[in-house]
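Colleagues,

Please find the record for the two-part complex below.
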Amino acid sequence: MSADIFMTYEGKLPTSIIEEVKQLLPASASQKRIENVLSAVYEEYLDTLEEAGDAVGIVAAESIGEPSTQMVLRTFHFAGVSEMQVTSGLPRIIEVFDARKTIQTPTMEIYLREPYNAGKDLKSIAQRILETTVDDYVSSISLDISVPQIVLAVDKQALAHIDWTVDMLAKHINKKFKKFKVAASDKEITIKPGKEKNIDDLVKTRERIKKTFVNGIKNVSQVLPVKRGDEFIIMTAGTNLKDVFELEYVDTTRTISNDLYEVESLLGIEAARQLIIDETVKVLRTQGLNIDVRHIMLVADTMTMTGELQGINRTGIVREKASVLARASFETPFKHLVNASLVGETDELNSVVENVMVNQPIPLGTGLPRLVVRRDV
Amino acid sequence: METPNSITKKIKSIRFGIFSPEMIKDMSAAKVVTPELYDMEGYPVDGGLMDTRLGVIDPGIVCKTDGLRLKDSLGHFGYISLARPVIHVKFAGLILDLLRTNCRDCGRILIPDDKRDTFIESFARAEKEDGFSGRRAAVKDAISSLRTIKKCPHCDAKQQKITLERPTTYLENERRISPIEIRTRLEKVTDEDMMIFGMNPEFVRPEWLVQTILAIPPVTTRPSITLESGERSEDDLTHKLGDIVRINQRLFENINAGAPEIIIEDLWDLLQYHVTTYYDNEVTQLPPARHRTGQPLKTLSSRIKSKEGRIRHNLAGKRTNFSARTVVSPDPKIELNEVGIPRSVAMKLTVPERVTEWNINYLKQFVQQGPKAYPGSNYIIRPDGKKMKITDETQEMLLEEIQPGFIVERHLLDGDITLFNRQPSLHKMSMMAHRVRVLPGKTFRVNPAVCAPYNADFDGDEMNLHVPQTEEARAEAEVLLQVQTQIISPRYGLSIIGCNQDAITGNYLLTKFMTLRYEQAVDLLAQTGVTDFSALPKKEIVTGKEVFSVLLPKGFDFTGEAKDRTPVAIEDGILLEGFMDKANLGEGAGLMLRNIHKKYGEDQALDILGKFYRLGAQALQIYGFSFNYDDLILSENSQKEMHKVIEQAYADVDILIKKYQENRLEVLPGRSPSETLELTILERLNRARNDTGAVAQKQSSELGPTMVMAQSGSRGSVINMSQMSACVGQQSFRGGRIDRGYSNRTLSCFSRNDLQPAARGFIDVGFRNGMKPWEFFFMAMTGRDSLMDTALRTPKSGYLYRRLANALQDLKVDYDGTVRDAGGKIVQFAYGEDGLAVAKTRGGRIDIKKIVEQVKE
């Protein structure tokens, strides 16, 4: 019965507010009271709405720009000694808003499914994600020129982390180096060249063997199990969301990378938008700055509104502007003026800068309404 | 001033295009034929660059084209007929592309007709993605993929390899092609083929990119300046144009005289050079044209470009009259939305008031007073727009003449609305409207409570003041810009204006510790501006809480927390429990100020805020708050305790170092052993510093001045106190301990590879006791580091801000509640997903809880 009253406000009030009212109202509340509360909330909501013509864009820019002058460039982690090193502060904000293709510290936060997130076997799960090469599983690698052969002394303990045997490793190497004879003993692998005995080649082969990929997920150069709330997650240096999502113990609904383009291509533009918001909020929170999310949402929405990621720079959003003068007033004025003249572009004077240039009211706030005066009266 | 019947025209749009030679000729007022500028009398030569048909820059001379004088005549274009055509540098790249992609014989594009349509679409897509240059690249790619680059598909003519030797020389198979030939080839390009290139044949023809006629900008765009010696100094552009005209004349003469080809070629090249540098004097391959002094000429492109160029300096940045700038100083006795203005400023800045039959006598008084007495007036504007200065001579005459329709520019008066601003104007609260209070003195007076939005202090800060000159501007200032309208920041939906410094300390002491005699309390309240004392209990001794409560409006309820999380309760306008500190009085913190604003409106909120401020400041004067060097001395016991803390830390660090050297240190995940050591030592030492702070805090009384300030949140922190009296702590440099300087050691007074705290920048004494030389040096190091840090950060964040502002400035909420950009594209369907204006919310939310509690059946 009471649900009906809530229903009537659907579409009039944002769902988040309706939900909050539902939660705050005691279950015993009478029909009349629910109605009264809702109409009071609705009235308050209408009073609080943004007004037509409000320059929300510039307000968002101010709200982010003003406090960013106070932001600390480098953050000092005294308390969180065991955290991963992640770009933070102003450099990270610039990185995100620029929609940089390569970021300084690509990281993933890998959430695990139950029961893996309780911490059991955490280390070995983490180990399996880490990208490893042959070098990580041998204690020494020697080149015997007299025979000639390459001898790998296998670190069995390390190998046990990924449930491999020496034999398996030997076979793995053989697969990659088919021209060589690979033999495995208890803790050694000997590799002999098939025909040619050029020492130069052997030395090169040794280096190649060292770098041969063995296990884990490519690009993940570091793993760090961390306790987050009451579960364990794995933080990584280097990202490869696609491969991580294929692991059975990974909770794909929460696992996330901080690489905008990776998230965009894998999870879509909406996910990228959310990531922009989350990453920005994360930085602002560590800096202790209070900025309403709505401002950051607006930035994220302008960056993603075309369905593709666009940075806030001359190759991104600014290029999309319809007005020649607005583009020219930002950066590289000549390019825009010259090209505009060739195409015969027309500037309709719809946005702010051009109207400032020609001394006319800007189409925002009190400059927005257009009135027509009847002169004959 | 506009008369009621005037209608100003509005610019609807601006179209960009390229002038054809015919258009240049048609719009020109004169043909320039001689490099001479002035004749013997100093009068501009006809057919020279300063020809009076091109506009006038001297008083008294009339423009021959429009018959107007200096300042009225806008100036007119002229032209030079070039003896030989030259390439326009800015289009050199495009000309190359056109030559390469169009047949040298028939001028058709090197794409067969049958494949044309399939390509056109992909070119349009390329343009959408990468703009005009992307389209050009796509056309080039298409042609090279078609392999028609060698042979024209239309006329089978063999194509040659064409290269551009920058900036403006074209080679075909290493043989130079003259601009004349280039022009004839470009003439052959058809309109349809141009459209493939994205060019609009309505406005451009490719042959126009090779110039045969050069437009000469009006004299008014390149005014000469007369030096003190009476000598004339011409503008850089005039110099450059002079060069062009001179070489052009010589080229003409040589051609007519039938001079050898080589001389003509040389002169032609020279003409090309001058025309190129006339457009852009910063072409990398060319030496810039210089003055005799050696400084490069500022030609067309440098006039437009960069922050100091036309676009960003003059077009996007405006200047104004009726403004003043001087030092600001504090005055808590004026209201927050007032600004104290020196009389000397008030007599220079004026407000135009139109004379009507009802105010004529009132305005006459100002004219009577004249410009030298306050309040007087400086100018009178007649209905025909003529501005008359009021002087001793004209005063009488003007007084008689004045009648409805005139405008009197009278001096600023108390209560006039002005705009007040401090740079850098980072947010909209950097410019707010204040009411005038004319005061003695020579500085602008500001209530210190509004320092926060301006980010001002009084160590010599200067601020700007503007007087709006139209009714419309004044109305907007009053309704939208006054301080009270800006109390709630749109950044986070909380009060950005609040008490600070002494006002917080004072209110803290008052509401926590002080009791006053009744008379004293009345006195105090009277000084804050209270006139009704009925809310003060009639007792001999009143508590500070009771005094504070007088300022709170009746019916105001609030529960919250103080800075130290103790509860604060206000009921019916009476502070029942807790005390006031930064958490409730400060800017951007707590909901008390926000709730007052919400319940009682902006005007009353501002009034109460001002009273809070004065109450705090005045209470402090009764209390007698001061700071003493002795306050920093630690007792003997505390000193011992402190030493023990530090010794313990040193011992722990020793153990860590030993473990590290013996390789027994438990390495943190993702770190090397040495990093682990550094981090753990850092952590341990910081704990030690905090512990000494706790020792110092323990021995300090709750009423010690440092403690009071730290506790109330008005200034400083407990760390500051412990640094002064107990221990400065670790100097952190680039996020770690100091580890640079000499090889393997920080300073020569330590042994190599010393990992001890003292050798790596730990300072175990307080500022009061003084530092040892190396400790002082370590501090200087970190001090310099942080200085550089700020210096490097400011431009970075400034650039980020500029980019953000540029990208977002056109976004607005439309009448349908969606957020749209200038082109009407929807960015958000509802602002911030729920459409709420942050400045109207309480910290970004609607207080539903309160509504639920209040609304009954």
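The radius of gyration of chain A is 30 Å.

Comments are welcome before we finalize the supplementary table.
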